Amino acid sequence: MKKILIIIPAYNEEKVIRQVIDEVKKEGYKNILVVDDGSTDATSDVAKKAGAMVVRHFINRGKGAAMKTGLEAAKILRADYVVTLDGDGQHE
Q1: How many whole angstroms separate alpha carbon 30 and alpha carbon 51?
Q2: pLDDT digits (tens, 9 = 90+) for 12-24
Q3: What distance lies between CA 21 and its chain's CA centroid?
């Protein structure tokens, strides 16, 4: 079976990140990585409690850098496929 990794770059999304993760899980995906791009709120903690893997930038580096970090992690995790979603809940 192929390994699918869902990458969610996020910046100060503590209010919606749990819902985003829960929706992804509801669709049957288990490998979820949130790249916290230097949030000043509890985005990382909420994402971890929701069951996602979390990588955190210490400072905000921008969405492109967060995506790059996620793709580098996908290589390390040996993902066969990668899907990206925004952390603000705008994607269904």
Answers
A1: 9
A2: 999 999 999 999 9
A3: 8
